[in-house]
Design goal:
Oligomer: single chain
Strand order of the largest sheet: 1-3-4-5-6
Order of helices and strands: EEEEEEEHEEHE
Number of domains: 2
Distance between the termini: 83 Å
Helix content: 10-25%
Number of helices: 2
């Protein structure tokens, strides 16, 4: 019988800011770094686009925390260099989508249908909050690198229930206005 993976709650932060605690699978100790563990994230964080689901990071005990919480810190690294803070990239990027069921359409079936449509393209979903009072709900996604934002929205649009989907992150590409055709000179 296969041993069940050990799950850990880890803290992601950036020099004390943007703190959140996703779950991660413990992959073992890091040699030469007392108390450090290599872990694979199994949630889609809300405050960090990277690391995200399936990324492997190294977490270390917080000396200021007596509870033994293991911490990953972005250390103020620029977004263009965040890969230097990730031990093994899981090959996904983060997206945020708002969803608003049509009038009279129940939230749960819409949420379930969106998640099912996403799974068909190996997109991992994490619900942030549900729609309320005609305000949209929000989903965080960990999207395989092979997919573009337009591919994600096209896949989610296959949901057969009335729902308005809005790509929040990455910012949707602005539609270009076609350039007027130059008039032919006679």
């Amino acid at each position: 019988m296969a041993k069940k993976p050990r799950l850990l709650k880890v803290l992601l932060q950036d020099r004390g800011e943007d703190a959140e605690t996703p779950w991660a699978v413990d992959l073992g100790a890091v040699r030469g770094r007392k108390g450090a563990r290599r872990v694979r994230l199994v949630n889609v964080p809300f405050l960090h686009a990277k690391p995200t689901y399936d990324d492997v990071i190294i977490v270390e005990p917080d000396p200021a925390d007596g509870d033994g919480l293991l911490v990953w810190d972005a250390q103020g690294v620029a977004w263009s260099k965040i890969g230097t803070r990730i031990d093994k990239d899981g090959g996904r990027w983060a997206a945020i989508v708002d969803y608003l069921p049509g009038k009279g359409v129940e939230v749960r079936p819409v949420y379930d249908a969106i998640c099912a449509a996403a799974r068909k393209k190996k997109i991992v979903t994490e619900g942030c909050f549900a729609p309320r009072d005609r305000e949209p709900g929000r989903l965080y996604l960990a999207v395989p690198e092979a997919l573009e934002p337009a591919d994600v929205m096209k896949q989610l649009a296959t949901v057969k229930l009335a729902v308005k989907l809005t790509l929040v992150h990455p910012a949707p590409a602005k539609k270009r206005k076609p350039k007027p055709k130059a008039k032919k000179k006679n």
